Amino acid sequence: MKSANSKKIAGHLKNAERFTKIIRKLESNYPRAKIALNYSSPLQLLVAVILSAQCTDKRVNMVTPSLFREFPDAEAFANADIRELEQAVRSTGFYRNKAKNIRNACKMIISDFNGKVPDTMEQILQLPGVARKTANVVLGNAFGIIDGIAVDTHVARLSKRMGVTKNANPVKIEQDLMRIIPRSRWLDTAYLLIEHGRAVCKAPTPLCSKCPILQDCPRTGVNKSR
User: Fold this and answer.
1) Is there a catalytic annotation at residue 14?
2) Which pLDDT does position 15 carry in this prediction?
């Protein structure tokens, strides 16, 4: 008779095998999956990711060209008039909080990190407005440091539907994903899930009839689809 622990391990392996199969199929369907935000420096990426909270990447990309011309470095952001900065990012939503976090993060970058965006998880999480999702995006894309998986709304939704997690907390979802995905695939997997979430596995109604992974997906929590 199998012990509870052996059953748990068997379930974990089965999940990992199924999810690996899913990821391979998604790779075939989204061969160019990558970050959609436009940036040319770690600081620009940090600011763009802060702005992307509850906002589309498309909208952020419309805002950042003029924003980065007006505020070209951390010092400019740190010394910005808060009203001017709020107006510059207003169209991304939650603009007061975002402007405050950007300015305060840049103040800390100057005072504590010699004017450079920190490149370790421990240090970057000290910045105002930066949680693990933002940290993972910046570290992975700006520095090539893979220390976790960026869990946004798409990644969270798909992870639940694919039966990878039962958790609602992004940190716990990230931990569940990291258990079954090789570290070398952490960055790519997030963007594959994001692309699939935007194109097919939508909220609230997924397009299951057009889904390339339908045969491998348990569709957990899906009550209605098209």
Assistant:
1) no
2) 79
